[in-house]
Design brief:
It contains one helix and nine strands. It is an alpha+beta fold. It has a domain of 98 residues: Outer Surface Protein A, domain 3 (Alpha-Beta Complex), CATH 3.90.930. The protein has a nine-stranded antiparallel β-sheet with strand order 1-2-3-4-5-6-7-8-9, with no helix packed on it. It is elongated and about 95 Å long. It starts with a helix and ends in an 8-residue tail after the last strand.
């Protein structure tokens, strides 16, 4: 190794060390915000899933991709297990989209979906019975199905 190479190596090492020292003196730590911090604006954020937790660390929602790679929005109730709102792939598996709202306390539910035949609205009462359906039937005609609170046709 020539003396000139050794001098450049020493100068480079001194620059690295001085940068580390100056950074620790003049720049504060890059920690995440604490409560009461200022908001930050991001023009674009790229990720596969964005998880939402409350201040107690309980998992409250997710905006991300399901196992098939389709986008979903899922919000959980107070017990962090029951889904109270869902926007994503249709549960019927026909590769269409649905929006579903569930009660925090019982089985009441409202869903708006696109199925194989067309759009559909369903309403389920607190007994778990589908009591109102508005949609498109298999022939492509309009459908209104109303039932009593036990699920029997009116």
């Amino acid at each position: 190794m020539k003396i000139r190479d050794l001098v450049f190596l020493i100068i480079g090492g001194l620059l690295v060390i001085s940068g580390m020292v100056l950074n620790s003196v003049f720049v504060s730590h890059a920690d995440a915000q604490e409560n009461g911090g200022t908001n930050t604006y991001f023009k674009n954020v790229f990720c596969e899933n964005l998880a939402i937790q409350d201040k107690n660390g309980r998992f409250r929602g997710i905006f991300g991709l399901n196992s098939g790679g389709d986008a979903i929005l899922q919000i959980f109730g107070d017990n962090t297990e029951n889904t109270v709102a869902y926007l994503g792939e249709n549960a019927e598996g026909d590769n269409e989209i649905m929006f579903q709202l569930n009660s925090k306390n019982d089985v009441r539910q409202v869903s708006l979906m696109i199925g194989a035949d067309g759009g559909r609205f369903d309403s389920i009462n607190k007994l778990g019975e589908r009591v109102a359906t508005i949609g498109v039937d298999k022939k492509g005609d309009g459908l209104v199905d109303l039932r009593d609170h036990h699920g029997y046709r009116k």
